[in-house]
TrEMBL record:
This is Transcriptional regulator, TetR family. Keywords: DNA-binding, Transcription, Transcription regulation. It comes from Glycomyces harbinensis. It comes from the Bacteria. InterPro entries: Homeodomain-like_sf, HTH-type_TetR-like_transc_reg, HTH_TetR, TetR_C_34. PROSITE patterns: HTH_TETR_2. Residues 16-77 form the HTH tetR-type domain.
């Protein structure tokens, strides 16, 4: 929580520190298994130690906070992913890529929670300028992931290369949502195991679906024509 010395951020450095503190608090609220649906702007402001109106001086909405946090988390994960590939004993290829991809994401629940809500929640209640800035950062990170993919499996022809990377985001979001049923659903699974067919192991499902997607893209050219 911020102290009184941060009550009025005047310089660029103070404003940057205030924004960083807001992002760090949002991250902490999600890090313990929190859900975006339960993260309110009022509670975020309370935990930062600011009035809600003051938080809105630095971010235009709760969703704007979370979009920037998504970019920060994704950049940190890409660093981890590249390091995991460099340290892997297995030879470069689809299996090594898919295993490191799933393994490193499994350790970043904040990122996966954000990814699972990016299109349906985070891109609402934000201005076109905020979305455009997020999309620019996202495009840069997609290009970085595509370059990592190129180095592991060879360059896929377009539009398959871009579609492959985009599919990975969809896989992660879907698998994460299936991994975290709400309490009522979890209770049903416990009482009626035969209904738990939708319960999945996040790392295994992501690893296998990413590997299958890459393999498919390499053997069958993709068409995006309707």
């Amino acid at each position: 929580m911020m102290g009184d010395t941060f009550a009025r951020a005047r310089s660029a450095e103070q404003r940057a520190a205030r924004r960083a503190a807001i992002l760090a608090t949002a991250r902490q609220m999600l890090a313990g298994g929190g859900r975006i649906a339960d993260l309110s702007l009022n509670e975020l402001a309370r935990q930062v130690g600011l009035a809600k109106s003051n938080v809105l001086r630095y971010f235009e909405s709760r969703e704007a906070v979370l979009l920037e946090l998504l970019s920060v988390e994704c950049g940190a994960w890409l660093d981890d992913f590249e390091a995991a590939l460099a340290a892997a004993d297995a030879p470069a290829g689809v299996e090594r890529f898919a295993d490191a991809f799933a393994r490193t994401l499994e350790t970043r629940p904040v990122l996966t929670e954000l990814m699972a809500n990016a299109g349906t929640v985070l891109e609402r209640n934000v201005s076109t300028d905020a979305v455009a800035e997020y999309k620019r950062r996202s495009f840069s990170q997609i290009a970085r992931l595509a370059a990592i993919l190129d180095g592991e499996v060879g360059v896929l022809p377009e539009p398959g290369r871009t579609a492959c990377v985009a599919s990975m985001h969809i896989i992660v979001g879907g698998a994460w949502s299936a991994t975290r049923p709400y309490p009522a659903v979890a209770a049903v699974y416990e009482r009626h195991p035969e209904l738990a067919y939708a319960r999945v192991d996040f790392r295994v499902v992501v690893r296998e679906l990413v590997a299958v997607t890459i393999t498919g893209m390499r053997t069958r050219p993709i068409s995006l024509e309707p």
